[in-house]
């Protein structure tokens, strides 16, 4: 994918650089990419990983950037704070989607019932077709801020119920987390959508047969609880985020459109402090940006691409390691799968013992999973039934959060060896980067608040802001 697109990308960049300097007549094709939890360290980690991969493949040619998003001509930086302080994805999604700062947990509302209109709805009213793509589930906070309103992100059924009512033309990604509500007694949102004229595709064949016209929902065949599979764990037949975006272009690309595409699981991997998994999510997200850039190359005058994030997760930091030259790529590429896959493979720790699991961990995480005191102590904790662990103690929470202790300890060792350290299992208040290309991209340079993305998008589309 990456190699195939390289030429296209260079062509698109040349055009983007030329266009960035000119005044444009309204962007008619607008892509807003949101890497959930993706700070600059997450982007840099993916850069270093890809550079390491190229070197491992024998390609030592210097190159400015490995990630497409890092090569876009306009760069900026946004503050992400919400009215509650360090933001969650609901308040940050609301700021990006509606231009309004709100409390954590509120989805396109002030948290007290007052609704904020989203850029997607406004674009829709102005004749743009709308696509919402996410590797997370549709009712999750970030996508929800673009099509729904709720005082609480936890009210997933209430949120999901608004999806078919939006009339937006394309929803794609993981799927619904709980289409029949928490107690599974409500009318299925999938059925409601179908009776509202949505074609619903849940297999690869169904996805491939979707053609322009009407409205469509396409969900990942490998989804679990509405999440797309991890990129690091994905199987042959899974549909990638890039494919979902490409399909969106095929379905909506005939006229004006606004598409929000979220890399929703970067955040999840960073909550778990799993660098190798996060890097693959960033790369999968970047491949989705590639498809937009290929479209920009064909429609240079009226296409705008904006890539940003809602907040940083994990307090990820990268430092140089002195031991081996390929420490970073070597360590990160040796990890066999996501933390959750390893957690899922732990069945009878007490009966099977430390040695067996240490061997398993070394096979899965590489040599970084070492015989240290921290790892041994964590295994002892894993061997205790969940109910009996001191999960409420400050020390336990700081070391393991809500995760399996042994998995966390092995990953922490491996990450540290590769120069990756984390400060929290939660979000941080760091600023995040904005990258842009195409019609009106220059407005996204500089340092400003996340809520201004909304205003700048409206301006680029030449839509008068009406509240
Ligand atoms: Zn998060």
List keywords for this structure.
ten-stranded mixed β-sheet; single chain; alpha/beta; 467 residues; 2 domains; 19 helices; binds zinc ion; Alkaline Phosphatase, subunit A; two-stranded antiparallel sheet
Write the layout of secondary structure elements.
Layout: H1 2-20, E1 29-35, H2 40-56, E2 74-79, H3 89-98, H4 119-125, E3 129-137, H5 141-147, H6 156-166, E4 170-175, H7 189-195, E5 198-201, H8 204-209, E6 215-219, H9 241-252, E7 257-263, H10 266-271, H11 275-298, E8 303-309, E9 312-313, E10 317-318, H12 327-334, H13 339-344, H14 349-352, H15 354-365, H16 373-382, H17 394-400, H18 405-417, E11 420-421, E12 427-428, E13 432-438, E14 446-449, H19 452-460
Parallel strand pairs: 1-7, 1-8, 2-14, 3-4, 3-7, 4-6, 5-6
Antiparallel strand pairs: 2-13, 8-13, 9-12, 10-11
Helix pairs in contact: 1-11, 2-11, 2-12, 3-5, 9-11, 16-18
The protein binds zinc ion (ZN).
Zinc ion binds next to helix 10.
Structure, described:
The structure is a single chain. The chain has 467 residues and is of the alpha/beta class. It has 2 domains: 2-316 and 426-460, Alkaline Phosphatase, subunit A; 318-421, no CATH class. Helices cover 42% and strands 15% of the residues. The chain is built from 19 helices and 14 strands. It has a 10-stranded mixed beta sheet, with helices on both faces. Strands 9-12 form a two-stranded antiparallel sheet. A two-stranded antiparallel sheet has the order 10-11. Strand 5, helix 8 (204-209) and strand 6 (215-219) form a beta-alpha-beta unit. The longest helix is centred in the middle third of the chain and has 24 residues, at 275-298. The radius of gyration is 22 Å and the shape is globular. The chain starts with a helix and ends in a 7-residue tail after the last helix. Mean pLDDT is 93; it is low at 19-24. The site of zinc ion has 6 residues, from helix 10.
